[in-house]
């Protein structure tokens, strides 16, 4: 049955609805495009907000680079142009070890091994993956109807779309997840940290000072006396010869408490935390401009993921929709890319008649669920450890680095 699905539908008549135009959804779209399988991508944000108002941050991109072979070759060739600083000069050691410092004294405590410490810009990666993809913006997903051989998706603007299958790539608070699981089985829980995550550009001299410490891309400090983590990395470099054009991402978190309601109060607490830290964390926090917006972030994860009803392979999940996790091991992007790669293989095998749709997606779901459970658990434990100096030194990331959980275990 080459070129047709197991129910006799020709490849060109098989249609995939992708809900969410983040990295996961776009990666799925590029894979389907490579294999000539029709699809439509729907994004809840309008185009202006999606393109121009994205919050910038960088993402760890290590073992996930092994799961981009389903992208068109030109995207694979250009993926490293999305690095936070494509021109950064690193030694061999700097490219394979992440330094963690005593956040009070500045002493190097742990060198975390990693396949690579390269990080990519969220904005740049989305832009690359949007190449030749027609995204339908302003489409807030509401619900699904399963008609057996077809699925209808309904959107808040009153429009609908019909396809053979749906994949929910719609982030942590996935609406597609709500369509395939009862509310009592979606037990997202708050990660009990007070967190401050912002971006900032500094003066030329300030930026050069921050980048003069230990590593050209990222700095991590764990306080020995306070349950506190500090993280500074390069989110983007607008002009390579201008330090003042560097966009720094700063993430400080403290175990317990709650994120203040007002931006003014968030600034006050953020800067108080900064004054308890060594350089360059101390000065960097003091230099943050008072009019900088600090988003009131609240972290959630899914401690006990449940098997969802995939409706005979017609509806499934990927990325944060499938396994929302604490971000303290930098695994979100890498797992999302693996999800996308496996989903492309599953759909391709069904379309080519090698497996039934149900068989192919059942196998995909089982792998994603099991892998997600492991990583959610380890990432949460790492979140705890990063706020406990003694625990951090024997944590998963200290012992096994950023490797996949199965390999680490």
Please describe what this structure looks like.
The structure is a single chain. The chain contains 13 helices and 18 strands. 31% of the residues lie in helices and 21% in strands. The chain is globular, with a radius of gyration of 22 Å. It has a domain at 11-56 and 122-186 and 304-381: FAD/NAD(P)-binding domain, CATH 3.50.50.60. A hairpin with a 4-residue loop joins strand 9 and strand 10. Helix 1 runs parallel beside helix 9 (332-351). By secondary structure, it is α/β, with parallel strands linked by helices. It has a six-stranded mixed sheet with strand order 5-4-14-15-16-13. It has a five-stranded parallel sheet with strand order 7-2-1-11-18.
Distance between the termini: 41 Å
- What is the number of beta strands? 18
Strand content: 15-25%
Please name the fourth-level CATH homologous superfamily of the domain at 11-56 and 122-186 and 304-381: FAD/NAD(P)-binding domain
Report the top-level CATH class of the domain at 11-56 and 122-186 and 304-381: Alpha Beta
Overall CATH architecture of the domain at 11-56 and 122-186 and 304-381: 3-Layer(bba) Sandwich
What number is the mean pLDDT? 93
Rg over alpha carbons: 22 Å
CATH fold type of the domain at 11-56 and 122-186 and 304-381: FAD/NAD(P)-binding domain
Question: How many H/I helices?
Answer: 13
Shape: globular
Strand line-up in the sheet with most strands: 5-4-14-15-16-13
Stretches with pLDDT under 50, minimum 5 residues: 1-5
Characterize the main sheet: 6 strands, mixed
Secondary structure category: alpha/beta
Q: What helical percentage do the residues reach?
A: 25-40%
GO molecular function: FAD binding; monooxygenase activity
Organism: Viridothelium virens
Cofactor: FAD
Keywords: FAD, Flavoprotein, Monooxygenase, Oxidoreductase
């Amino acid at each position: 049955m080459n070129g047709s699905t197991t129910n006799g539908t020709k490849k060109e008549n098989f249609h995939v609805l992708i809900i969410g135009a983040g990295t996961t959804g776009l990666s799925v779209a590029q894979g389907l495009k490579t294999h000539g399988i029709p699809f439509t991508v729907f994004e809840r944000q309008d185009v202006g907000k999606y393109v121009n108002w994205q919050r910038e941050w960088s993402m760890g991109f290590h073992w996930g680079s092994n799961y981009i072979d389903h992208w068109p070759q030109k995207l694979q060739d250009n993926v490293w142009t999305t690095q936070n600083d494509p021109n950064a000069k690193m030694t061999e050691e700097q490219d394979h070890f992440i330094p963690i410092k005593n956040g009070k004294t500045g002493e190097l405590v742990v060198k975390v091994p990693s396949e690579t410490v390269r990080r990519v810009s969220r904005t740049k990666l989305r832009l690359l993956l949007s190449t030749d993809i027609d995204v339908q913006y302003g489409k807030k997903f509401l619900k699904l109807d399963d008609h057996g051989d077809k699925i209808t998706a309904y959107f808040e603007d009153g429009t609908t779309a019909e396809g053979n299958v749906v994949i929910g790539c719609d982030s942590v608070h996935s609406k597609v997840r709500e369509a395939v699981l009862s509310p009592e089985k979606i037990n997202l829980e708050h990660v009990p940290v007070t967190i401050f995550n912002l971006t900032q550009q500094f003066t030329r001299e300030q930026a050069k000072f921050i980048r003069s410490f230990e590593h050209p891309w990222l700095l991590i400090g764990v306080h020995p006396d306070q349950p506190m983590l500090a993280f500074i990395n390069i989110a983007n470099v607008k002009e390579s010869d201008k330090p003042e054009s560097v966009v720094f991402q700063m993430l400080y978190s403290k175990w317990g408490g709650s994120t203040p309601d007002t931006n003014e109060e968030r600034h006050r607490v953020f800067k108080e935390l900064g004054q308890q830290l060594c350089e360059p964390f101390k000065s960097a926090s003091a230099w943050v401009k008072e009019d900088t917006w600090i988003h009131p972030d609240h972290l959630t994860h899914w401690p006990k993921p449940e098997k969802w009803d995939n409706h005979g392979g017609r509806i499934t999940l990927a990325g944060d929709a499938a396994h929302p996790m604490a971000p303290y091991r930098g695994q979100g992007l890498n797992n999302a890319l693996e999800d996308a790669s496996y989903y492309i293989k599953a759909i391709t095998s069904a379309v080519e008649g090698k497996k039934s749709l149900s068989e192919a997606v059942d196998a995909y779901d089982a792998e994603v669920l099991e892998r997600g459970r492991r990583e959610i658990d380890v990432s949460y434990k790492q979140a705890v450890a990063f706020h406990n100096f003694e625990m951090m030194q024997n944590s998963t990331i200290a012992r096994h680095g950023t490797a996949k959980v199965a390999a680490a275990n």
